[in-house]
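Predict structure. Chain length: 180.
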Amino acid sequence: MYKSFIISGSGGQGVISMGNALASIIMLNDFFVSLCSSYGAEMRGGAVNCEINMSDSEILSVRNDKVDYVVALNQTSFDKFISKVKENGTIIVNLSLAKVNKIRDDIKYISAPLTQEAINLGNIKITNSIALGVLLKVLGGFSYDNIKPVFEKLLKNKQNMIQKNLEALKLGLDYVLDKE
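Prediction complete.
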């Protein structure tokens, strides 16, 4: 079993944190994982993405021409990475910051107003945790109980953020997805 992912957005959206969390969750659930992050020249607002690979055997390459899953947290990410989704792959789109242009009929589109949901929970910085929950729901095989310890460990230096991020993650895992 081999799955590949791209998580993309702009600096400040928690793309790298989400990639690190996904890689940790995968690893702690006894899979091999690779993670490669790419940053734009700007500190905040520049393009940022992570490529993550998950496998039940050793991973020989960190880069893929096509991936199974793309998470696009903004319009630029959607436009840039929709072509990288494999046939029958899935793109998850943050409807708060991107419009879904169904330019391909060979992939699944999943959309949710991720940023708005984070604002509704009281903190825009947890958008990435909601997105991660949605991705893990779509991927399947990961329960909240498997994921919670990873979040607690990753956020141990930010005790004030653990509960909000767990709440956001749970919202993503429980979200009624709009499959388009």
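Summary: The chain has one domain: 2-179.
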